[in-house]
Amino acid sequence: MRVDVWADIVCPWCYLGAARFDAALRQFEHRDDVEVVYHSFELDPGSPAGATQPVLDMLAAKYGMTTAQAAAAEGRVQGLAQAEGLGFTVDREFGNTRAAHRLLQYAQAHGDGRAMIRALYNAYFGAGRSVFDEAGLAAVAADAGLDAGQARAALADAQAGQQVEDDIALARRLGVSGVPFYVIGGSRAVSGAQPTEVFLAALRSAWDDAAAPQGAPA
To answer: What pLDDT digit, counting tens, does each position of 72-98 carry?
Structure first.
């Protein structure tokens, strides 16, 4: 069974949702028969490449908050992340994620998208490291098992770049306006960082849908 996941690297709810989905998958009876495919999505496609700003400044400007209010909001997400056993730092930058998505799509095409997206999330949210520049992404690539040459190839890979574009276009056609967004078995959609129990129920329902004889009630 295939699970399609749209997410952005700098999306805290995607980070949290990934942990909860992984917990559900570990409990799922048919987990060894599940393929997870990661699709690129940009929260802020207009963010200029190469430029970053503190995440609290970005949140304050985007949502009309004070910096203190933005810090309080981040603190609430931090608490949820820590409850899932995740590292989470508020002291991080925000920027354009197109290059990070190229790296993810390259890794996925070469066999290990899950290791790469985990490495990206852990570097960004857990350690506050850069996922926006070549040096930072090369370090993340090493965390996921790619050498420096492979990292450079990934960032220049035309096919990976095209996959990013295709994913974003597909999200628009499907009406995906926020992430994380999961399509499970082609029959169940789950939006947001839902509790583990919701993901597990969706996995089981989608599996039952696929197993039901054609024309029989699910």
So the answer is: 999 999 999 999 999 999 999 999 999
